[in-house]
Amino acid sequence: MSNNLLKGKKGIIFGALDEKSLAWKTALKCYEEGARLVLTNAPVALRMGEINKLAEAVKAPVIGADVTSMDDLRNLFEKSIEHFGGKIDFILHSIGMSLNVRKGKHYTEMNYEWNQKTLDISAMSLHKVLRTAWDMDAIDEWGSVVALTYIAAQRVFPDYNEMADAKSLLESVTRMFGYYYGVKKKVRVNTVSQSPTRTTAGSGVKGFDGFINYAEKMSPLGNATGEDCANYIVTLFSDLTRMVTMQNLFHDGGFSFTGVTQAVIEQMEK
């Protein structure tokens, strides 16, 4: 059921790959709540994914962009503003890629050239997106930008590897750029730290099945689903959260503040 929370708002969704992705689910929810959308992803992801199916469902154009390229991002914003006939109200940054994880390099043996690419794609891309929007004055006053992160930025999850560093950097960019954008245009910038979710990217992390079961037992409310995450992000894009900015918002069923649960204790005592 729609509450028209985003009626009249216009947004760009980065990172929708397939039906499992959080960006995909968020795009559907934003459209349901009355938003107009532009979808974007890297050219290679556009070839691999099913984004045209999503584009048809939400009646949105697809504009390819390499998030590490300032020229591509400028083109994306120019075409989006032209499509909307005005400035943008919200952006979802749902982007993450680790070459060291993909190629099986342990954290203690990482390839540093690959690491630079990981940080550029997974974290500094948010800075580049915000910088481009800042330079072009592309986001309207009281706009909202949300980036997806994970609690490995604060705690050690060994198999999350260098992505933990990338998420830490992503959250730092959120705070720093959030300050400047808030002062300049009342634009708010936040990260959402989501429960482990069975996305195509998440499922590629070593030991994912065991970990998602552990997180379920460690969360008083259980793991938050992708649909739950999309609902939460919609509230952050809406006018209901105008004074929330520079925050890392945990959306994880209580996992982040739970020391231990009875279910975990019982499992350990077996």
Explained architecture:
This protein has ten helices and six strands. By secondary structure, it is α/β, with parallel strands linked by helices. It has one domain: Rossmann fold, CATH 3.40.50.720. The chain has a six-stranded parallel sheet with strand order 2-1-3-4-5-6, sandwiched between helices. The longest helix is centred in the middle third of the chain and has 25 residues, at 112-136. The mean pLDDT is 94.
H/E element string?
EHEHHHEHHEHEHHEH
By CATH, the superfamily comes out as NAD(P)-binding Rossmann-like Domain
**3D shape:** globular
Largest sheet: 6 strands, parallel
Distance between the termini: 44 Å
CATH architecture: 3-Layer(aba) Sandwich
Based on CA atoms alone, the radius of gyration comes out at 18 Å
Give the helix level as a range of percent: 40-55%
CATH topology: Rossmann fold
Overall average pLDDT: 94
Number of domain units:
1
What structural category characterises the helix and strand content?
alpha/beta
The fraction of residues in strands falls at: 5-15%
Short description:
This protein has 270 residues and is α/β, with parallel strands linked by helices. The chain has one domain: Rossmann fold, CATH 3.40.50. 46% of the residues lie in helices and 14% in strands.
